[in-house]
Amino acid sequence: xxxxxxxxxxxxxxxxxxxxxxxxxxxxxxxxxxxxxxxxxxxxxxxxxxxxxxxxxxxxxxxxxxxxxxxxxxxxxxxxxxxxxxxxxxxxxxxxxxxxxxxxxxxxxxxxxxxxxxxxxxxxxxxxxxxxxxxxxxxxxxxxxxxxxxxxxxxxxxxx
Length: 160
Fold this sequence. Notes:
transmembrane helix; ATP synthesis; mainly alpha; ATP_synth_b; transport; 2 helices
C-alpha cells in the first residue's frame, strides 16, 4: 500500500505562496519578539549577571587590596620616619656621650699632669734640700778637716 502524497504537497505549496513577500507580518513576528526577549532575559540571568558579579567582586577585591596596601605603605613610611628620628637622636646622644667622655678624660689627664708636676717639684725640692744638707755637712766636715790640717801645719812649722 502506497500512499500518494502529491495532493498534500501541492496543497501546502499553494497555501505558502499566497500573500508572501520578504516581510510577512503575521503571528510569527510577535513570537520572534517574545523569543528574543526570553533569550535576552535568559542570557542576562545565566551569563551577564554572574559575569558582572564576578567582575564587581574582582573590582572590589582590587580596591580593597589597594586600600590595604596604601594603609600599609603609610604605616611603613611613618615607622621609617619614627625609626630615622630615633636613630638620629641615638646618634646625637652617642656623640654627646663621646664628647663628654673626651672632656672627662682630658680633665683627668690634666689633673694627673698637675699631680705629676707637683710630685716632680716636690722631689726636686726634697733633692735640693738634701743636697743643701749634704753640702753643709760636707762644708762642716771640710772646715773641721781644714782646721785640723791647719793646726797640724802650725804645729809642724812651729814645732820645728
